[in-house]
Amino acid sequence: NMSEVVGKSIRLGELVYDKTTDNNIRYIGANPNNYVTFNNELWRIIGSFNNIVDGEGNSATRLKIIRNQSIGNMEYNSDWKVNNWAVVTLNKYLNGTYHDSLTEESKNLIANVLWNRGEINNFNRIASEYYKMERSSLTSLGNPSTWIGKIALIYPSDFGFATNGNGSLSGRNACLNRQMGPTNGWSNNWGSCQSNSWLFIKESWFLTSVYNICNSMTFNDGYVRSGAIGQGVTSQIKPALYLNNDAKIISGTGTSTDPFILAM
Predict the structure, then answer these.
(1) Residue 66 bridge partners (DSSP)
(2) Going by DSSP bridges, is the β-strand pair 235-236/73-74 parallel, antiparallel, or unpaired?
């Protein structure tokens, strides 16, 4: 069951508390044993997240997962003037055509939850600051600060909190106290921060948008930056979602050859 998985993974140093206000538990490192079968494919567990509210307002602890392989490169939105996640073409695809392609069993495992859409007004922040900004009410262009739905993308903070630095507690702490933006980012001498985060995906969209300009954020070479939307600009897409809180791990060890198996 999940409690046994968490206990073993914490002992192995693959799961740690992120020490945010929600104190979520996250998988860290270059390649932790967090593989899970979903939709008859390999996905990976980002962690166990507290205080995740569903569409009916019920708060629960839920597993958050991400597809292991990209489903391809796509635009964030066809209109460069709009980055409201509720209406962008990428959202419409993920929660329409893509969602409809999933197995019925997988669809039943997905939670319909509130996703935070606070925007970023400065890239040069540490992971915990990104976490706070993502959950803030700061938005622009009339965009709402939340969205309720099933399939989305990861946040900059997810990428940041997934590092284990150079494999030591002090190394992880150093990375978590290092700004992640283009000015003082996780590149050059700090490359171990990004190479030891299994969520480092070169050139990939984040859910979070940038304040007052029609860009959503991508990351490249270990730092967080803006990425133009529309105008034919595409980036990798790895769908992310939360599981229903009654989803259980019934077997598996979490390796890529023996992934966790889910059941309701």
Answers:
(1) 44, 240
(2) antiparallel
Q: Which residues pair with 209 in a beta bridge?
A: 216
DSSP calls for 185-238: -S-GGGHHHHHTBTT--SSEEEEEEBTTSSEEEEEETTEEEEEE-STT--EE--
pTM of this prediction? 0.94
Q: What is the pLDDT along the chain (264 residues), one digit of tens a residue?
A: 566 666 666 666 689 999 999 999 999 999 999 999 999 999 999 999 999 999 999 999 999 999 999 999 999 999 888 999 999 999 999 999 999 999 999 999 999 999 999 999 988 899 999 999 999 999 999 999 999 999 999 999 999 999 998 877 788 999 999 999 888 788 777 888 988 999 998 888 999 999 988 777 877 777 888 888 877 888 899 999 999 988 888 889 999 999 999 988
- One DSSP character per residue, 40-51 reads TEEEEEEEEEEE
Q: How many Å is the maximal CA-CA distance in the chain?
A: 48
Rounded Cα distance between 141 and 82, Å, is 8
Look at the block and give the residue holding tokens 């569903």: 54
CA pair distance 15, 8, nearest whole angstrom: 9
- How far is residue 58's CA from residue 51's CA, in Å, rounded to a whole number? 9
Distance CA 19, CA 47 (A): 13
